[in-house]
DNA sequence: CTCTAATTTCAGAAATTACTGAAATTTATG
DNA sequence: CATAAATTTCAGTAATTTCTGAAATTAGAG
């Protein structure tokens, strides 16, 4: 591996974290490299930068493409494929969320739904179903929130983040204001 | 493995998903089993239920304890250790979020901070730093939101989830109400 | 259509991770 | 403190995942 020290540290870190994030070392390293590079790289650039085999690069790029984390670019008068990551980190976040949901949450939700359709054959199964139902409810609440929020523009999303827990206070304030308004016009409503 | 069919399907699914979630099969299976069981289980119960070795159970339980996902219980006049998961799925969610943040996000944030302290030695490094800075900003916004929201009670958290994107509309409404109020008392403020 | 560059596929090797059984250690009890 | 039950450790093995090099395929230029 022959990279500027800063880039190398970043790439190595992403490689190490890869396993915790459920991707492998090479995929993590390639993503980090593409993310931090100032221009698109072709497969052979990656082979050289990371000292790994050409076929490994090919398979890892395919994996990154399956995750929609990488963009294919073409350079005039050059038949090779060049790759970058999207510029906008918020867009990257959205993609990551979408793909992880698809791979890590949706299959579980569908298993839960299926198992909750069954008629329990014993007290033990009846209890298990009750627990699965709790899990299902939680996951559905979370995904419903996600489906709602994912359409927001970056600016609105940032606003929502900055609000954080203040939202609940805001909600209280709104309730007070509304009920105040109501009291003025409809004084007899509870 | 000798379990009621429903429980078995659930356990096997968690085992399979394990790799995507960054835990191994056995750990996933044991968690699922404990989660869905109506009473605490001891190590030998798990050995029998999942047909795996006693030492594997021991190591996997240790792993689950490191994640704070499992509770150690004692039954009177029985020296064996019994295990369950917390009852409250919201509490489980909180624990999961906290542990994943600790393992998957914090180390990256600390690497980013360190690399952004360095003086870039080339134009390529300067560009890389700019990209790392974008990533850092995003992660810090997200973790700031998380730190804010994690203290909320379950009920408030559920409220926040139910609001979803409506928060931004609510915020607009509040702005209008406030500026309306201001106009009445301070008509010359822009 | 032919030639060549670029990319992909895939069988096997290498590396890593998970699992087991035996031995060691810890813990509770009389 | 001796004993037995429960649990943990760990070295070796099994299973899985990752990676490579060679061969096959695809795509572009002439």
From TrEMBL, chains A, B:
<dbReference type="InterPro" id="IPR011991">
    <property type="entry name" value="ArsR-like_HTH"/>
</dbReference>
<dbReference type="InterPro" id="IPR026282">
    <property type="entry name" value="MJ1563"/>
</dbReference>
<dbReference type="InterPro" id="IPR036390">
    <property type="entry name" value="WH_DNA-bd_sf"/>
</dbReference>
<keyword id="KW-0238">DNA-binding</keyword>
<dbReference type="GO" id="GO:0003677">
    <property type="term" value="F:DNA binding"/>
</dbReference>
<feature type="domain" description="HTH marR-type">
    <location>
        <begin position="22"/>
        <end position="80"/>
    </location>
</feature>
<dbReference type="GO" id="GO:0003700">
    <property type="term" value="F:DNA-binding transcription factor activity"/>
</dbReference>
<dbReference type="InterPro" id="IPR052362">
    <property type="entry name" value="HTH-GbsR_regulator"/>
</dbReference>
<dbReference type="Pfam" id="PF12802">
    <property type="entry name" value="MarR_2"/>
</dbReference>
<keyword id="KW-0804">Transcription</keyword>
<dbReference type="InterPro" id="IPR000835">
    <property type="entry name" value="HTH_MarR-typ"/>
</dbReference>
<comment type="similarity">
    <text>Belongs to the GbsR family.</text>
</comment>
<keyword id="KW-0805">Transcription regulation</keyword>
<protein>
    <recommendedName>
        <fullName>HTH-type transcriptional regulator</fullName>
    </recommendedName>
</protein>
<dbReference type="InterPro" id="IPR036388">
    <property type="entry name" value="WH-like_DNA-bd_sf"/>
</dbReference>
